[in-house]
Write a structure and sequence with these properties.
alpha+beta, Rossmann fold, two-stranded antiparallel sheet, 40% helix, elongated
Length: 192
């Protein structure tokens, strides 16, 4: 779960756990849960706290599990990370289960070989789509609402004072011992 401000941990982890339990039903039980919060899926697993703990636990000879099941591939992997994680787990004799594979991933199976790259691309596409939507929304706010979101004004526009910033209470009022910060709001105006 990368955005803790906009997602509910209980429902996000609950949904993923439900899928994981369905994937392993009749084959085993979940003995540990690793769930990263506030970490981008673009980070390698060893840079995500919970994923790094899972890899460290997998390297222990007395671990309590022999398989790892992922509840949602798009949340766990980005791009080609899957190959790195699968290799690390296989070296420890641990299976990797995915709902999309219908169980354990078997890279000797041509269907599984063909399945993995599109899953990584799908995760990457989701991140890029979200980034594009945010940038497009900011562009529309600038053009339609005249809101200035920072940076250099677009060609043909200039900055105009729009009075005190309504969110100035979010900005510290004291700088050092005596300088007061006055936050101003700006709007874009067409050059005339």
């Amino acid at each position: 779960m990368s955005t803790v401000e906009f997602q509910d941990r209980t429902t996000s982890s609950g949904r993923q756990r439900e899928v994981a339990e369905e994937t392993i039903r009749g084959h085993g039980v979940i003995v540990a849960e690793y769930f990263d919060e506030g970490c981008s899926r673009r980070l390698p697993w060893r840079e995500r706290p919970a994923a790094a703990q899972l890899i460290a636990a997998a390297e222990q000879p007395n671990r309590s599990f022999d398989a790892v099941v992922i509840g949602e591939h798009k949340r766990a992997f980005y791009g080609d990370q899957f190959d790195d994680v699968l290799t690390a787990l296989r070296e420890q004799g641990i299976q990797l289960w995915l709902p999309e594979a219908g169980g354990p991933v078997n890279l000797d199976d041509p269907v599984h070989q063909a399945l993995m790259p599109p899953l990584g691309s799908q995760s990457r596409r989701e991140v890029l789509r979200a980034r594009h939507r945010v940038l497009a929304a900011m562009h529309i706010q600038t053009c339609v609402q005249g809101r200035f979101l920072g940076g250099r004004p677009p060609y043909g526009y200039r900055l105009a004072d729009a009075g005190p910033n309504p969110h100035a209470w979010d900005i510290p009022r004291v700088w050092g011992d005596h300088a007061l910060i006055v936050a101003q709001s700006h709007r874009l105006r067409l050059w005339s």
